[in-house]
Design a protein that fits this description.
2 domains, single chain, mainly alpha, 21 helices, about 60% helix, about 475 residues, five-stranded mixed sheet
Length: about 475
């Protein structure tokens, strides 16, 4: 039946997400996170293209080199920019392409072990989940999970290959995708726990299991070296901390208890949204009732592994909705199982429609940029009228680096209260500060700076020269 060809739906939602694909990363949700990706990519193009030394713009008078996720997405943007010239939106397009392929591999992986209908329903649920939103942002979350899903697919192909099938191509694909996926986003590796079930399969030769385990270890080594040696080394050497490496499990657990309503909301409100979560619960209940062990074991293993990620994140998990992204494929699988148990096709399609409408309605705001946010695009040109690109600047955007990225300069970001401190400004002047941008409408609040020359003013911001 052509309506159950998942490729048509993946293509449809791919095309749907092309709406506004060329927008700069200025939508309300996570513009700050996206611009920390794009500024690194632009610095590869304009400063130094060594991927082992990613640099951000908000490090003041420092080089900006700092520890962060391995910049695979950033470097992909850089490589495309070398060919086509730099544009803000390249990361959106790259992530959308890879994340759409991730949906295809998710479908193929689920279909291997369950029915076609279950795989089809689960993939549709995943497509309109929070995955829909983050698969077109300049962020590595769905990008990384897509690589992991594809890697697991090829890994299972190697483990289950027959005597007459070639075994090395899927093993090489598995190792490469595993390496890139975990490097891009360390928490994505939690899903590898589902491969542990193959240890107990007697039909797989022991020597193949040993080879698989060795290759997995070797593929993970660079990621462990990057996050637990190189990231701390960069921070210590270049003096700028940027990347969140988690907390102790004890502290994380305490924060989760303190903020438990927000933690639960990530599962029932963010992941699949409310209707999708109800379907997930129905699927879980049905699996337990019917003792569908494959579903139960996958969920149990994944939940145990992901709980370690949640504990390490603590309040950060409750505060940032993209932290739930790695677990959404598992929830979609369980929801897909629940839908596959409904015998009336019209009922299934009706439920899918409701899930899709709710999911897309909750994420529709990402398709437009507010006018006051869009004003940031002009900031670079206005600064070019009064200053040089190498001049260090200060912006009153608090913790948000977004305006600094669009200023296309390096410097500092801080609050109005800090900027109003004459001693603080004098300290920054000694470090090379030359201009201050006071934002009026977005990312900051208006304030007057006495004793400094106003060189440009409009309804959106005011630029002072020290």
């Amino acid at each position: 039946m052509k309506w159950k060809d998942i490729r048509l739906w993946i293509l449809f939602f791919f095309l749907l997400r092309l709406i506004g694909i060329t927008h700069p990363p200025l939508e309300v949700g996570h513009n700050w996170r996206q611009t920390t990706v794009t500024m690194v990519a632009r610095n590869f193009l304009e400063v130094n293209n060594n991927p082992f030394y990613p640099r951000v713009d908000m490090a003041g008078d420092l080089s900006g080199i700092t520890g962060m996720e391995f910049p695979l997405l950033n470097y992909s943007i850089y490589l495309l920019s070398e060919v086509l010239g730099y544009q803000h939106w390249y990361g959106r397009a790259i992530n959308l392409l890879i994340s759409s392929l991730g949906l295809w591999y998710f479908f193929r992986l689920v279909r291997k072990y369950f029915t076609h209908d279950l795989a089809f329903y689960a993939t549709l649920v995943l497509t309109v989940s929070v995955w829909f939103q983050f698969s077109r942002k300049v962020m590595p979350d769905t990008f990384s999970m897509s690589l992991i899903l594809a890697g697991i697919y090829y890994g299972t192909n190697y483990l289950e290959a027959s005597v007459h099938q070639r075994k090395w191509p899927p093993l090489v694909a598995y190792a490469g995708l595993l390496l890139l996926g975990v490097l891009s986003k360390l928490p994505s590796g939690y899903l590898l726990v589902v491969l542990g079930g193959f240890v107990f399969q007697t039909t797989i030769p022991l020597h193949r299991k040993l080879v698989f385990a060795l290759v997995s270890f070797l593929a993970l080594l660079p990621a462990l070296g990057w996050y637990y040696y190189w990231v701390p080394h960069l921070v210590e050497t270049f003096g700028f901390w940027h990347f969140f490496m988690g907390k102790s499990i004890g502290q994380g657990a305490q924060e989760l208890v303190e903020h438990w309503p927000q933690v639960l909301r990530r599962f029932y409100g963010t992941a699949l949204h409310l209707v999708g979560f109800v379907v997930f619960l129905a699927g879980l209940g049905t699996a337990l009732w019917r003792k569908e062990w494959k579903v139960i074991v996958v969920l149990a293993l994944s939940l145990f592994s992901f709980s370690l990620v949640v504990l390490k994140a603590g309040f950060t998990f409750a505060h940032h909705n993209y932290y739930i992204v790695p677990f959404v494929p598992v929830m979609a699988l369980v929801a897909g199982y629940g839908l596959s148990q409904i015998k009336q096709a019209k009922v299934v399609w009706a439920v899918l429609l409701i899930i899709a409408v709710e999911g897309l309605a909750n994420q529709a705001s990402d398709f437009r940029i507010k006018d006051k946010n869009l004003a940031m695009v002009q900031l670079e040109n206005d600064l070019d009228l009064v200053s040089e690109r190498q001049d260090r600047i200060l912006i009153n955007s608090g913790k948000y680096p977004t305006p600094l990225y669009f200023a296309h300069r390096k410097g500092w970001i801080n609050t109005n209260a800090a900027i109003g401190d004459a001693a603080y400004l004098e300290t920054l002047r000694a470090k090379g500060l030359k201009y201050i941008v006071i934002l009026k409408r977005t990312f900051g609040q208006p304030m007057e700076l006495s004793g400094h020359r106003k060189v440009l003013e409009n309804e959106n911001y005011c630029i002072y020269q020290l």
